[in-house]
Write a structure and sequence with these properties.
Layout: H1 2-28, H2 34-64, E1 65-69, E2 84-88, E3 102-106, E4 114-121, E5 126-130, E6 133-137, E7 143-145, E8 161-165, E9 170-174, H3 184-187, E10 190-191, E11 195-204, E12 210-211
Length: 220
């Protein structure tokens, strides 16, 4: 919040200086050619608009939401190459990620890269993939066979993987295009520190504009 306060004060100061400059144009240069004066006043007004737009866009872009363009086919059939999505960076400050959330994160082995996957396993759980299905075991050993029929077709079977136990702050993520996704089956757990945010909206292509909701998992 302190960052926002300081940022707002800087913006207010800029606007005050711009207004004073505009007054100076009219007050200190009364004999200035009207055409030149009008041009200068126009420039000042445009500058004010730019500053105000900057004041609105920057906090949203860096603290609340950010755009992400999908590369590759690992999230098909639900997301495709060149889809333009908006990532919610704000919600996870108040609640933990949930199973089924589609997230954008820093690739753990090279944090300069950004990946998009779906959360499957939560902290403290053990994840196993066998015979094309995902099984989740909680800390008490209770088993949940994940029914993903609401967002996956029957032909997208996950390859077999030995059980993987997640520690606190760790997540297991998979791409929806299971046979062709590079994900937790290949490089392991995802730390919560590497999660950027949850995919909230798709804005491109126009015929696929949508609010992205997390799925519910039907009973087995």
């Amino acid at each position: 919040m302190a960052v926002f306060f300081c940022y707002n004060q800087v913006v207010k100061l800029k606007l005050i200086l711009i207004d004073r400059f505009a007054c100076g144009i009219s007050g200190f240069f009364p004999k200035m050619n009207n055409t030149v004066k009008n041009i200068l006043i126009f420039v000042v007004e445009v500058t004010k608009i730019v500053v105000l737009a900057f004041a609105i866009v920057v906090p949203i872009r860096y603290y609340l939401f950010q755009p992400f363009v999908i590369e590759g086919s690992s999230m098909e059939p639900n997301f495709h190459q060149a889809d333009y999505v908006i990532v919610d960076e704000f919600s996870y400050r108040f609640k933990a990620p949930e199973r089924g959330d589609v997230i954008v994160f820093k690739y753990p082995l090279d944090t300069s890269k950004r990946f998009i996957k779906r959360i499957i396993g939560l902290p403290g759980e053990t994840v196993e993939t066998k015979d094309g299905t995902v099984s989740i075991f909680n800390k008490d050993g209770q088993k949940l066979t994940l029914n993903e029929s609401t967002y996956l077709t029957s032909d997208l079977k996950v390859p077999d993987m030995s059980p993987l136990t997640l520690k606190d702050g760790q997540y297991f993520v998979l791409g929806d295009n299971r046979p062709y996704s590079y994900d937790s089956q290949d490089w392991g757990e995802l730390s919560s520190n590497d999660i950027i945010g949850k995919v909230a909206f798709r804005l491109w292509p126009f015929n696929a504009i949508d609010k992205i909701s997390s799925p519910t998992y039907p009973a087995n």
